[in-house]
Amino acid sequence: MGNNVKSLKKRRDNRRVFLLLLPITLFAIAFVYFPFIRTIINAFSKVNSKGVVKGFAGLENFIYTYSRKDFLPALRHTLTIALVNVPLTLVITLSLALLSEKKRKFSSVYETMFTLPMSVSMSASCMIFKSMFSPSVGFINYFFSLKLGWFESSDTALFSCIILTVWMGIGFDYLLMLSALRGIPKSVMEATKVDGISLPRRIFFVEIPLISPTIFYIFCTNLVLCMMTSAPMIIIMGVSAESSATNTLMSMMYQSGFSSSDYGLAAVLSLTAFVLTLLFTILSFMTERRRVHYEA
Amino acid sequence: MKRKKKDFLFDTLVTLIASFLGIIIIFPLIYCFLSSFKTPSEFLNPKLLPSSFLYLDNFKNALERGNLLRYTLNSFIIAFIGTVVRMVLSILAAYAFTFYDFKGKNFFFFLILGTMMIPGDVLLVTNYLTVSKLHLLNTYLGVMIVSFVSASQMFMLRQRFKTIPKDMREASSMDGYGDLWFILKVLLPLSKPVVTTLFVQSFINLWNAYLWPLIVTASSPEMRTVMVGITRLNSWEDENYQLVMAGVCISLIPSIILFIIMRRNMKKGGLDGSLVG
User: Fold this and answer.
1) Is A119 domain-assigned?
2) How many domains is chain A partitioned into structurally?
């Protein structure tokens, strides 16, 4: 009897769980896993301009992509943006967080200023920077009496893109750093005061090791962001596809997917960016084991 | 006494330096705000301040000629409905994961969390093909549909739900109340700070989205979102930056207001660190 009721309840529960989980699972499969698998399939297939698979292509798409003249520059730009941006953002946000760690009378004022960039969308910040750094009417050239072309000259375009990506990342990363620093137990900080440890020593030997999990988290998320989300910026900044000084893997993917409907090429490019990002992340996780402290 | 004075001086110095750096960081926003009041001829002279703050033609032109009014409405519909659907899906799933035990629980949990591992940009082209096959191009649903799953949101809700004693649900189900009643009357009121933060965060995210709306609404200018709209303001006449800046100001109003609400909410709920993830 009791068993029967139990199994009845169990069956009812299972039906409910099914209904509760169905919607999110359905969308996860339809709009994340299915397209991901399809991207992998596309990379190894002959795909026509309507996106229909027309047979197996082996490594043809890969060879075609990697031997293109614009592939290596795009790869170089992607890596440059990531390798400059990630450490720069870490240093900037960590310094800002250390500066504002202690709660002071007006700290909420500058905390808000430091975090505000995170509410600004990518396209809005691109437009602001495009105008501010405009060679002819921009404020930056005027204020510093410079004659640089910034986004519009091929010598400085990549550099300008890095300024922009760093700016966009500051807000959120600063917030994470700050809450990590403020989360350090008071007893630890008091102990360093009693022991009379100097400020630089305290920062480098106590605080930074203690918040290393957060630093590592910011490192990884930034890396992924830099590698994967550069396309809108390059598109908005209006640098054309072929002669571009800033073309990245993802903006090249966008061009090949939506301007020339070359879905094989697009699939190979997005997979390449994805695998590279994954490799970097795995590498950082391997070094993390030795470097990051999780106690306290 | 002497030490106190030294501390005070040090704090003032730090405050000054921090405020100065803060102004540099928000300078682009200040610049954008000031420039939006400039007349076209004033803009050619790259000074910071406009001659008067009463020149509102840029805003008027952006809203009317640039069709930004319509785009703002589009963005609002997409961000609002998209967020609501996203929240409903996440709440249902988080509820199932917290209060039920079932076969394959771990499998489904990691199936959903696994979506975080795949960056959306990789899926751009294939999702576009799917959406166009479903005849959802140039529709609100087409813009929203790819963002209905948010694993991080689901995860955060589950973390919150876990702190609520399971007895409460048993008590309510003994009284004959169903799952829905429990979610609406007990779970959500108890998790209000988290739910609000996630709602605001998700709204800002969808409001700020650029690439996907651009692709899906490419052939129908009427359906563009505000973030796509502002990048088109200076294409019909060259270097119309004062107009663009006015458009950017308009597009920033909701996200900055919500951002300030969220910051307050997080501080009140002691959730400053819970954004990680």
Assistant:
1) yes
2) 2
Q: Which residue has the tokens 């300024």?
A: A163
8 Å CB contact of A214 and B215? no
Q: Tell whether the model's pLDDT for residue A229 goes beyond 80.
A: yes
Q: What is the pLDDT of residue A7?
A: 83
Contact A222, A162 (CB under 8 A): no
Q: What are phi and psi of A53, to 5 degrees?
A: -75, 130
List beta partners, residue A56: A45
Quick one: pLDDT at residue B274?
A: 45
Q: Which tokens hold the place of A38?
A: 């399809």
Q: Are residues A220 and A94 in the same domain?
A: yes
Q: Which of B99, B84, B69 is nearest to B230 (CA)?
A: B69
pTM more than 0.80:
yes
pLDDT at B1: 57
What is the enclosing helix (H) or strand (E) of B32?
helix B2-35
**Of the partner residues A96, A102, A253, the one whose CB lies closest to the CB of residue B21:** A96
Q: Does any domain span residue A296?
A: no
Domains and CATH numbers, chain B: 54-268 (1.10.3720.10)
Which ipTM was obtained for this model? 0.88
B224: distance to nearest CA of chain A, Å? 13
Q: Are residues A119 and A228 in the same domain?
A: yes
Q: Does residue A57 share a domain with residue A68? A: no
**Per-residue model confidence as pLDDT tens digits over B225-248:** 999 999 888 764 566 888 899 999
Helix (H, G, I), strand (E, B) or coil at B218: coil
Residue A124 is nearest to which of B214, B241, B251, comparing CB atoms? B251
Residue B139 CB partners (closer than 8 Å, separation 6+): B223
In whole angstroms, what is the distance from residue B221 CA to residue B88 CA? 30
